[in-house]
Amino acid sequence: LNLGLKLLKTEVISVSTFANNKAKDIETYVVDLNLQLKDGSTKRITLNVVPLITGTITRTPLSVTFSETLFQTLILADTLPLKTEISSLHMLIGSDYYPELVTSEKVQLTDGLFLLGSRLGWLLTGRTPAENSKMPLSMSVNHYSNQSLPVLNLFVGIDNSLPIANNAEDFWSL
Fold it and tell me: What is the pTM of this model?
């Protein structure tokens, strides 16, 4: 509640994490937030405020050559780091709002690295090679639900419903 958001109520959510067999119940504050979209409008979302979403994350610059020209001309949903930095995650937008925020635009930049269109700006997602490293880093996708889903394999595999442009040149020729 450091953002001055009005408390609507409290509720208990059940959180499951990696390497744990049992969910943990956490009491949270429920607040509404007007999320600023790239077109200037806002989207009202309801959030659960938790003490900590995750530990710090390491953000590394991209080592792909097109990043300077391509990313300077696009509206990205987040900034790209110019050097390796340690950061904290302040908000996690759940799968309950995902379909309302992500559009059908999808551009393949390299093998395993994509730009996804969203109402927040372009989302860089996939395997990103780290600067000064041959090892790819994988971006994290987290899922929260207040209902248990018996069929978890619904979310496994490549989403073929979104069109894929073969390369960045195809994106610019639209």
Answer: 0.67
